[in-house]
Design brief:
It is built from 2 helices and 16 strands. By secondary structure, the protein is mainly beta. Strands 1, 2, 4, 7 and 8 form a 5-stranded mixed beta sheet that branches. The N terminus is likely disordered.
Length: 258
Amino acid sequence: MAFGKILLLCAVLVLASAAENKNQPRGSDENNCNLPLEFTHESFFDPTFVNEPKNDDAFDEVFYTFKLPSNITNYNLDVYHGVNYISAEVIDKEVIFKPTENFRNFEYKEIHDEPARIEFLLPFECYVDENDYENKTQFYFVQPITDVNNHEPMFNRKEYQYHFGMPIKAGALLTNILEIYAVDVDYTNTKVEFSIDVNDYIEISYKGTEYLNRKIHYATLTTKKDIPAKQNMVLTIKVTDMGTPKLESTALVKIVID
């Protein structure tokens, strides 16, 4: 019974020590090739360096630099993730992280939850003692990205035309015939507003986002009252985002009733 208690106590101490090490910020030491970075254990197995956030329009800005210690003998800058958007190169023993030309497409190609981030793995080799004992380390470089509201939400068409051969009843859902939606590349705009010219017959409202892509926002176009024959009309619809500053775009809705 006493032996069992000792084993249980040892297990508790090991788990507590592991939890403490996992959550404790970790600076440069010989286990990390003396890299001059402040590491955390955001990744369970590898140390992680989290850089300060950069705007998604910082196309010409250097993201981060650090000097390589003299004990670094080899490194691999073929990044594990993020190679399409951030490059890592060494110039005069200085590691430089900067956006690639493809970073201009980051908002267009990626679907993000907030906050967005780019991360990749970098391996290093070094000698850490006088006996030339070789040590290898790797760490995750994490680059948070801040969304800047710099894209207007855009309708999927410049003109929506609804053609009928008879009068239309009140409550008709016109977007069951032809969908209306707008795409907002600024992924932190989780909702937009739709509006339409003041009129007696048609109203527009927000329906929701695409299930797998919340950059796509759908509208519903509904008749408020019966529309008689020959009552043709051309109305302007507008979509406005919720960012700062607010951005908007317009399209036309044409109703033709023979």
